[in-house]
Amino acid sequence: MGIISSKEALSIAISKDLDLVKIAPTANPPVCKIMDYGKYCFEQSKREKEARKNQKIVEIKEVRMTSKIDSGDFNTKANQAIRFLKDGNKVKVSIRLQFRKGVALHQELSNKLLDEFKQAISEYGVFDKPSKIEGRNIVLMVSPKPSNTK
Description:
The chain is α+β, with helices and mostly antiparallel strands. The chain has 4 helices and 9 strands; from the N terminus they run αββαβαβββαβββ. The protein has 2 domains: about 5-55, Translation initiation factor 3 (IF-3), N-terminal domain (Ubiquitin-like (UB roll)), CATH 3.10.20.80; about 60-150, Translation Initiation Factor IF3, CATH 3.30.110.10.
């Protein structure tokens, strides 16, 4: 409609039985729109509900191991992680470090095991961050590859 006074715009909105809504009140001159505000709010809430309904909640599943794990158990844990990734969940891989007198033992074995685990599941997941030590555990976060999710 162009630039008109606020009183004139309000009278036009009232005559059409609609609301005068300020879109950009800080602009010079302020930008307003004539619309049915109740209907606009209803449609906005409907869109938000639809978006919430369609979003997938990603769970974090954990796979725990020790540095002295057997090959059969290792394969079971790797298959478990692959199944979680195929289902679209994130996987937290934690390897428990063994301590004696405050010093971590077999840390190189744990790192080697983590590298083997990375190779075993690399086809199904993407590694978010490099592994890090949290307390008594070495932790690695893995997200599913976009092509593998349902």
